[in-house]
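Incident review: delayed structure delivery

Summary: a single-chain prediction request sat in the queue longer than the usual turnaround. Root cause was a stuck worker, restarted by the on-call engineer. No data loss occurred. The affected request and its eventual output are reproduced below so the record is complete for anyone auditing the incident later.

Affected input:
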Amino acid sequence: MNNTIAIQAEQITKTFGDFTAVDHISFEVKKGEIFGFLGANGAGKTTAMRMFCGLSIPTSGKAMVAGFDVYKNAEEIKKNIGYMSQKFSLYENLSILENLEFFGGIYGLSMREIKQKSKELIEKLGLEQEKNKMVSELPLGWKQKLAFSVAIFHQPEIVFLDEPTGGVDPITRRQFWDLIYDASEQGITIFVTTHYMDEAEYCNRVSIMVDGKIAAIDSPENLKKSFQAKTMDEVFYQLARGAKRSAD
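Output delivered after worker restart:
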């Protein structure tokens, strides 16, 4: 991690009619950082991520992603990021190799690069025997790990992960985070949304969204100290309870 800013948001807001999904959020993410974007379902995490990926235009505020303006340079942003949605994003009726070739082509890699990177990736994941299998035949955990590997296949500056470990067992979740650590060590910035508060412990810093707003932002250790909590679940509970009291 260094001092280069990978993502910068200032008072970013997204409204849908009278409903405010993201309410004036501001933060910075450093290059190579693992940044957790935490909150309950419906807190505004996915809406915010879509704006940073160039998939949705903010209603107001400013944001730069990989050095590009979210209003003016959405297509440039898409070229410099990887993205993994909470819904499985690979083609189930294609083999592992065919998926790698397809997405490698979309990312603009040459056939030589695709073949070399595919070989390295399949060896790293231990999928030599399964490389010609249809993706539909793989267990969910392997599908998720493969989808993440495809999201960083082109060595993007930033990868956005939207609830990447939803529905998988704890052991597979931990293995998935090993892949995230590897990517971070390569200099890729990780922006990950999750509602699993224990996963906050794996991040360099986290922000916690409550009702569209950032209720707290810091390292997990500092947040636990500030709220005199033993776990991030306790921190989140205190923040959510405080927000409810304010609303009442």
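Verification: The longest strand covers residues 5-16.
Action items: add queue-age alerting; document worker restart procedure.
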